[in-house]
Structure formats: structure tokens, C-alpha cells
Amino acid sequence: MIDWDDVRYFLAVARGGSVRAAAEHLGVNHATVLRRIAQLEERLGVQMFEKLPSGYRLTAAGEEVLEFADQMEASSHQLETRVFGRDQSVRGRLRVTLAPPMATHLLMPDFADFARLHPDIEMDVLSFGELANLTNREADVAIRVVYERKTLPQNLHGMKGPELFGAVYMSRDRLAAWRAGAPDPFRWIVISMHGIPDWASAGEVRTTDVPFRTSDAGAQIAAVRQGLGITTLPCFVGDADPLLVRVPGTDLHMYGTVWLLTQGETRKTKRVRLFTEFLSRRLAAYAPLLAGLSVARE
């Protein structure tokens, strides 16, 4: 019998292209990956990888193994979701994936309320830059902003929420100085990997071509609070911050629609149903804030 765990290690090396990448992905050391690959090669009687200076490349035999390994992985995920879907207990683990700003600036109080209502549910809030994959069972519920529903995988079940808008913001003190005649031009504050969105304009203020770059949303918000310049933010972040105000002459921009997503049999579990129904009601109440309609403009 082939050990499924050995196959997992094989897939990690095949997809990562190196033992180091596989070890980091699986959270094990380099030697463990090598040992598992050697076990699988010995059991199958073939060499699956060719070691090159650039990394590990599949042999012809390895390519054949990869095809069946992918099928084994898919079957394993399907089995897990079906078994999980039969679990109707309100005790157990619930993993929710969403973008960091939505967790930090909007939904954490609601997660806390849900956790207090259901103290036997163990919640994992996965707020990374890259959202976890529902199909691979990396999470049970995904909260995503999607411009078009058809861009989502067909195997995901979705509950549609409110529309989400963004705007261009600056510090309230910097706006007051600008209105008093301060001559300094404004910098665009951007997250390095994103740059200035195509839809964004500087409105009535004058901007310099020298940007101020940050690596994450937290630093971006701190920079605009310090009066370094102007930046784009979701309305639920910018409008809720008493230190910030929209840049005069700029417009709202629709980012997309908030969706609550689940996959396969997972959505049938009681704790997933309780959570999605609870959060759907909370999101509906946030509709004016998400649309940028909740506060009077300057």
C-alpha cells in the first residue's frame, strides 16, 4: 500500500520545485522531505525527480506519478468535506479566511460576538494577504470581495452581501492646512505591490510624482494619518477614522460585492450554517458604511 503522507510530500516537491520549498510549505525539516520521497521511490521502484542546479525536475516516471497523485489528493479532499458535512455539532473548529483590513477594521467585533454566543466553537481567523483555498480545505468559510460572481469557482456556494466602495483620503489636519493656503504638494501613499489604482484621482489637490510606499495596509493608514499625503482606502476604513477625510473633488469607486463562500458538503455543518447566517445579518447592517453613505461629507 502507498502511504498517502508520502504522496503529499511528493506533491509539495513537484509543485514547489525544491525540497526547501516543500519543507516550508509542510512545516517540516529538509531531511524529513528527503526521507519521505526516498520511501515513495523505493516502494514504486522508480526515480521521480532529477536534481538540477535550479531545483528538482520531474522525470518521465514522476510525471506519471503526478497525474495519479493529483487524483488521490482530490479524492482525499472530497472525502474530508463529505465527512465534515455530516458533523452537525456546534462544537469544533471553524476556519474563516478574509483580507486583513476587513478583519481588523470591520468584522472582528462580530467574530467576538459569535464566539461569545458559541463558546464551544474553536474559531481560526485567517487574515492573510493571500486568501486560503476552500477547495483544498484550507478554510471553511471565505469572505471575499468579488466584482463579478462568474469569476468565482463554480464549486463554491455563495451568500451575496452588500456592495463595497472605496475613496481617496487624507488627514483632516492636512486638509485644514491646505485650505489655509499651505503650498506643499501631496504625495500618493501606496502599498508597494499595488501602486495607484487606475480609478483614483487627486481631485482638487496637487500631487507630486514622488510616491511614499508602504508594505502593508497598516503602515499605509499610519502614513496618511501623519499627513504624508493621500491614499485610497475602503470606505469602511476611511470613513470610520476620525483623523481622516475624503479628498475634495474625488469620487467613490466600487470595489465589488462582499460574498460569504463555502464549499461542497462543508456548508451543511451546523457551525458553518450558524456562522454564515449570523454574519450575513451583520453585513447587511453594514451596507451604508460599506457603500460610503454612513457619514456626512466635509
Describe the structure in your own words.
The chain is of the alpha/beta class and 298 residues long. Helices cover 41% and strands 24% of the residues. Helix 5 links the parallel strand 3 and strand 4. Helix 2 (19-26) crosses helix 3. It starts with a helix and ends in an 8-residue tail after the last helix. The model has no long low-confidence stretch (mean pLDDT 86).
Largest sheet: 9 strands, mixed
Number of helical elements: 10
Low-pLDDT residue spans: none
Question: How would you describe the shape?
Answer: globular
Content of β-strand: 15-25%
According to DSSP, the number of beta strands is: 11
Q: Indicate the radius of gyration in whole angstroms.
A: 24 Å
Structural class given helices, strands, pairing? Answer: alpha/beta
How much helix, percentage-wise, in residues?
40-55%
Question: Short description, anyone?
Answer:
This protein is an alpha/beta fold and 298 residues long. The chain has 10 helices and 11 strands.
Strand and helix map with partners:
Layout: H1 4-16, H2 19-26, H3 30-44, E1 49-52, E2 55-58, H4 60-85, E3 92-98, H5 100-117, E4 121-126, E5 141-146, E6 156-171, H6 172-179, E7 187-191, E8 212-214, H7 217-225, E9 229-234, H8 235-238, E10 244-246, E11 253-263, H9 270-285, H10 287-290
Parallel strand pairs: 3-4, 3-5, 7-8, 7-9
Antiparallel strand pairs: 1-2, 5-11, 6-9, 6-10, 6-11
Helix pairs in contact: 1-2, 1-3, 1-4, 2-3
